[in-house]
Automatic annotation (TrEMBL):
It holds the Pfam family Bys1. It comes from the Eukaryota. Residues 1-18 form the signal peptide. InterPro entries: CetA-like. Keywords: Signal. The keyword Nucleotide-binding does not apply. This is Thaumatin domain protein. It comes from Aspergillus sclerotialis.
Amino acid sequence: MVLLTLVTGAPLMQQVRGMPAWNGGVKIIDVDIYVRSVFLKDGGDVQTIIGHGGQYSEVWRGVGVSIKISTRDYFGDNILQFEYSANDPVIYWDVSYINLSSKSRFLEEGFAATPTSLGCAPVVCRPGDYHCSNVYFEPDDNYAIRGCQINTWVIMEIGIRSG
């Protein structure tokens, strides 16, 4: 099981200079995957290899952040993406299959991204659902964007149990 959480509380990684100090961030815990976070504004990226008991964390960094989630250390293809843009007072977010293989472990296991704010729609893709209607397939699939209060937590669980 993989948990990706937009969390409130103390900053987990230093925010970009000049950006507001939002009460949230991204946290992936107790997983066996690779993660790369890319921020369009600074062009930088952070790669963290996650093992059992490890974790990856970052505070919201602004507009155009893409967290690429992979089962290997190569990020050219077969990646699930959690993308967000912080535009106070709203956090806009989505999940993307744009670079995901139809044979991906993420598709086999399914996932759910559930916000804590009322009125903020979840993203749920059942195991084996490559045609999930809640995700991006193309760069202009704007119907998949969610907008929540900036202090919302979004808990992303990869591996949906049946029953």
